[in-house]
Every structure is written in C-alpha cells, then in structure tokens.
C-alpha cells in the first residue's frame, strides 16, 4: 500500500502541474475544459476529501453500533452458528485456513447474505465483524492473512440480486425497461467474483508471508 | 419480472426491521439477555468508526486528488481505442475508471451517459450494468483492513481490482449479448 499511496499522490500532483504549465488551448485539448487552475482545485480537494473521510467514518457509527449489537445477540442465540453450519461445505473450501466452527465463518455468511440481498448498510458492519474474527486467527497483526485478502476480494466483487440504486436512477432518467439490467448484472458479478477468488488464490503465493519471528529463547543468561 | 420486482422491493424495503425483530425474539426465547448483549456489541461500533478514520483519510485524499487532477480524463482518452478492440463501448471508459474509486462518482457518470445518449442506449445500459458489477474497492479496502489495523495489504488491492476488471468487461459483454 505504501507504493500505491505515494504513486497516487505524486501522479495526481504531477498531472496538475503539467496541466497548469501547458498553454490554455493545449491543456483544454488534452484534458477537456476547466475553469480554474488544476493545482487550486487539488488544494481544495485534498482538504475536502480529508474532512469527508472523517464525516463518513463518524456517520457510520450509528449503523455500525446497531448491526454489531444485533450480530452479538444473534451469536449468543446460536443463530450465526446455525447459518454457518448450513453453509459449512462451501465455506471450508473457500477459507481453508479458518476452522469450520470459528465465529468468523458465521460473520462471513451474514456479510455475504446482506451483500446478496443488496442490504449495503448491514453488509459493512457484518463484514467488519468478520474481519475482527479473522484478525483473531492472524498471527501477524499488521499484515493481511490469505483469508482476509480473499474475503476482501469477494466483498469488492459480491453478487447483488437487485441493484436497487441503479434501477432507481434508470427509472428517473426515463429507461423504458429499468430492470432489464438485473440478469446481466448477476452474470457479470458472478464472473467478477470467480475471477477475484482465483486471483486471490494465485497471487497469495507471489506475496509470501514473512516467517514469524522466532519465539524468544528462554533462559540465555550468563553461562 | 414484475413478481420478481415485488419480491425485490419487499426485501430491500422491509428486510432489516424483520431481521432485527426476529433475532431479538429468538434471542429472548433462548434465554439471551437481549438488551445487555446488544448494548455490549454496539459499543464496538463507535470504536471501529474511530479506528478507520486515519485509513479512510489516506485513501480518500489520494483517490480524490487523482480524480480532481484529471488523471482519469487523460487515461480514458489514451485507452479508448483499446476498449473498442475488446468489444466494450468506448463511452463507458470513465465508468470503468471511476467505479473502483468512488460510488457517487460512478452514479454521476451513469447519469451523464443517460442524459447524453438516452437511458436505453447501449452506452448507458452497459454503464448501469457495470455499476453493479464492481464495487468501490479502494474504500472497502480502507474500511475493512483499517478496522483491524492492517497496514500491509499484500495482494489485497490487486485481487480486488482484477475482480473489478473482470466484472466490468463481462458486464459489457453480457449487456451486448442479452439486451442488444
């Protein structure tokens, strides 16, 4: 992530500098019209984005609290384990590193179900609950485990049965059949999810985990 | 389709309160102290929200700068000829570039295409399918990994983006095959 972060920042500012350095006509030809210097826009954007990020996180607080509370009740009532047991054959194949009866499995199932039903605001808290349980199994606390990367990849490509927001936008803009996108969307997300799964599995060998630090040797005093 | 639509509306409109009430009821029947347990779990929500702030700031500032600098316009001009060759309408390129970076940005591109080419056009329909076929990978990565303090993401970003690319390309192909 270090490299990605630096590359994004440097590339953005470099493009901004070039854009301002080019004569007006040429800049417009390459980048399209713009009504203010690129660097000034970047200045404003960096401050706005930082403020938005904090607002977004704090805005999540209520929903996170709600779903983490519900999740805890469902866990103690045995509902999560029940759901996880039903899907155990699939889960064990997807996440071989996670013990079949670990609470992470239940949270993963809940997250995927919420994604499938298009309940985005429930899916994130449940996904974070799953991350928490996956972190319990992770020996390197600052490094993503294979299971975490796979879970993330499946979340960024999850299948949605009803893309509700898109359908609403299409209706608003006068589509004659606003829901005709449902089938291609399901098929495309299924392909995306499959590819993400394979990519996560293949890439994990190219990003090997560092060996754990050797346990401290006992004793070792003066001999 | 209309029966499906009714089902869909019912799920997205009413599922959440029903699930919450069911969980509470089953919990109570099984002897769980529902209120105490709920509050205890909910306490974590606040901690998580605060914990993800630094990660979100880093990612959203970087992504915001890239979008605002016009880097995507530049890329979409450079890549347009490539897209035609793989059977994807060139107008949807901004969508493909924005989708992993920003959800509201993707909505904006979709509406722009509907206004410019009509909601039933191939470009706008393809963009709509693309919007559902991928997700805001950068944001999800910041939130999910940030919530447990993961700093070394290994192949996390690549796996997510490769999945996005596959979803976006197949979105264009399925749209063309099934709807046009």
What does it look like?
- The complex is a heterodimer of chains A (about 220) and B (about 180).
- Chain A is about 70% helix and about 0% strand.
- Chain A has helices spanning about 1-20, 25-30, 40-60, 60-75, 80-85, 90-95, 105-115, 120-135, 145-155, 165-170, 180-205.
- In chain A, helix 4 crosses helix 8 (about 120-135), helix 5 packs across helix 7 and helix 7 (about 105-115) packs antiparallel against helix 8.
- The longest helix of chain B has about 35 residues, at about 35-70.
- With about 180 residues, chain B is mostly helical.
- The mean pLDDT of chain B is about 90.
- Chain B has one domain.
- Chain B has eight helices and no strands.
- Chains A and B meet through helix 1, helix 3, helix 4, helix 8 and helix 9 of A and helix 1, helix 2, helix 3, helix 5 and helix 6 of B.
Give a quick precis of the structure.
With 223 residues, chain A is mainly alpha-helical. Helices cover 70% and strands 0% of the residues of chain A. The two termini of chain A are 46 Å apart.
Determine the oligomeric state from the structure: heterodimer
Strand content of chain B: under 5%
> What overall form of chain A do the CA principal axes indicate?
globular
Distance between the termini of chain A: 46 Å
Walk me through the topology.
The complex is a heterodimer of chains A (223) and B (180).
Chain A: H1 2-21, H2 24-31, H3 38-59, H4 61-76, H5 79-86, H6 88-94, H7 103-116, H8 120-137, H9 146-156, H10 164-172, H11 182-203
Helix pairs in contact in A: 4-8, 5-7, 7-8, 8-9, 9-11
Chain B: H1 2-29, H2 34-69, H3 71-85, H4 93-98, H5 103-117, H6 122-133, H7 137-147, H8 156-179
Helix pairs in contact in B: 2-7, 5-6, 6-8
What keyword list fits this structure?
heterodimer, A: 223 residues, mainly alpha, 2 domains, 11 helices, 70% helix, globular, disordered C terminus, B: 180 residues, 82% helix, 0% strand
């Amino acid at each position: 992530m270090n490299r990605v972060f630096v590359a994004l920042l440097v590339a953005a500012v470099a493009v901004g500098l070039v854009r301002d350095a080019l004569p007006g006509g040429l800049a417009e030809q390459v980048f399209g019209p713009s009504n203010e210097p690129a660097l000034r826009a970047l200045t404003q954007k960096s401050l706005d984005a930082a403020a938005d990020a904090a607002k977004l996180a704090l805005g999540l607080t209520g929903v996170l609290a709600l779903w983490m509370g519900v999740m805890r009740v469902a866990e103690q009532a045995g509902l999560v384990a029940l759901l996880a047991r039903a899907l155990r054959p699939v889960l064990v194949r997807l996440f071989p590193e996670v013990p079949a009866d670990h609470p992470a499995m239940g949270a993963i199932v809940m997250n995927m179900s919420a994604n499938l039903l298009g309940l985005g605001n429930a899916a994130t808290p449940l996904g974070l609950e799953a991350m928490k349980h996956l972190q319990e199994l992770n020996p390197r606390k600052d490094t993503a485990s294979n299971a975490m990367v796979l879970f993330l990849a499946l979340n960024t490509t999850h299948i949605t049965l009803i893309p509700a927001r898109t359908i609403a936008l299409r209706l608003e803009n006068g589509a004659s059949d606003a829901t005709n996108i449902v089938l291609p969307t399901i098929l495309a997300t299924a392909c995306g999810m499959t590819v993400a799964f394979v990519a996560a599995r293949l890439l994990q060998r190219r990003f090997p985990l560092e060996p754990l630090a050797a346990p401290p040797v006992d004793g070792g005093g003066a001999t | 389709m209309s029966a499906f639509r009714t089902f869909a509306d019912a799920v997205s409109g009413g599922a959440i309160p029903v699930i919450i009430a069911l969980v509470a009821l089953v919990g109570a029947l099984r002897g769980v102290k529902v209120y105490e347990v709920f509050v205890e779990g909910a306490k974590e929500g606040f901690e998580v929200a605060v914990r993800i702030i630094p990660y979100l700031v880093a990612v959203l500032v970087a992504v915001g700068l890239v979008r605002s600098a016009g880097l995507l316009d530049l890329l979409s001009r450079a890549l347009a000829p490539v897209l035609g060759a793989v059977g994807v309408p060139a107008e949807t390129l901004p969508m493909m570039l924005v989708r992993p970076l920003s959800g509201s940005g993707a909505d904006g591109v979709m509406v722009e295409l509907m206004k410019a080419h009509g909601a039933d056009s191939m470009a706008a329909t393809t963009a709509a399918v693309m919007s559902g076929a991928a997700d805001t990978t950068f944001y999800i990565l910041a939130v999910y990994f940030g919530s447990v303090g993961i700093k070394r993401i290994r192949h996390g970003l690549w796996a997510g983006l490769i999945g996005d690319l596959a979803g976006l390309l197949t979105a264009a192909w399925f749209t063309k095959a099934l709807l046009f």
